[in-house]
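Milestone M4 deliverable, item 7.
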Amino acid sequence: MTTETQRRPMAFVREPASDEDMARANHYALISRLFHAAPDGTLLDTLAASGDWPVDGDAPSAEAMLMARAWNALCAASSAMDAAAAQDEFDALFGGVGRPQVVPFASFHLAGFVNEKPLARLRDDLAALGLQRAAGESDPEDHIAALADVMRLLLTDTTRSEADRAAAQDRFFATHIEPWYGALIDALDAAPEANFYRRAGQYLRCFLD
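Output delivered:
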């Protein structure tokens, strides 16, 4: 878990999240998990068994077709990957001494360095939402995994009305994700070591697009 809710007074449930919002929240949860740490064997097996995304309707939209292809490609990559290889790839892309091959922090892509002004603005916005970095988490809050986790929480926060949830999601996405996620995925596409994570990046791009 990359974010957590601060302690605050109990609030009554106003409006339950729709099936569509729950499905979106599940995608954000998967994105957060994939980019926070390498997938383990259980997750790889689950994804491998989840391919063949159906495209409903006689004339599906281009976006639906792209999303289905990206999902099926991610699941196919999962079936060809084991946990040890996934860990090696994750470390090669996101680890190492100094700057990693692929930097998953918003500040880097927006300001050229980590821990810059975009992170400070994010922390202010998280505090206003009643959110903070999870205890024991060392990565800054502008990691793509943490931002995806915030979107999951905003989608499922039934202490807010449906309209308030939608407005909060729109503001957060437009401010903290939309300006830079394309650069992150471009970096993944260009990384020679990216195999599984190139497919994960394509899935991320199609979903966020």
